[in-house]
Amino acid sequence: MSATVLLRRSLTARNVARLGQLCQTSACFSTAAVKSSLADGDLRDFRGRFDLTKKNFVVTGGGRGIGYAITRTIAEMGGNVCVMDMLPRPVKDFEKLSAEFGVRTKYLSVDVTDEKGLTQAFEQTVTDFKTLDGW
Fold this sequence. Notes:
The chain is an alpha/beta fold. It folds into two domains: about 5-45, no CATH class; about 50-130, NAD(P)-binding Rossmann-like Domain (Rossmann fold, 3-Layer(aba) Sandwich), CATH 3.40.50.720. It has six helices and three strands. It has helices at about 5-10, 15-20, 30-40, 65-75, 95-100, 115-130, and strands at about 55-60, 80-85, 105-110. The protein has a three-stranded parallel β-sheet, sandwiched between helices. Helix 2 crosses helix 3 (about 30-40).
């Protein structure tokens, strides 16, 4: 039995009400959202809760896999993103992010274990993006 099914079975009406009380100020949950997920099993869309518009980020290892998923998510949320990775090129979808989401993207092939190369990559990113809001 999946963890989701077990969780749903353990959430009684009283627990749902208590969860709503605990999370009243949280942007993540509401009693209605929990009841809705119990009813139909759909996941709640959180995209409207995270706005990264005009913020600049660096993702190391963002050229493929989980790192690319993070890169794409930042772009979807409106953030500009510079990817630093050892690969000579990122996955093909990376080239489409800028046009698809209206953000700035940059890819730098750099070995993050090389301190001099990494420092130069960050300096270049700051020169191009002007600020960094996260990495």
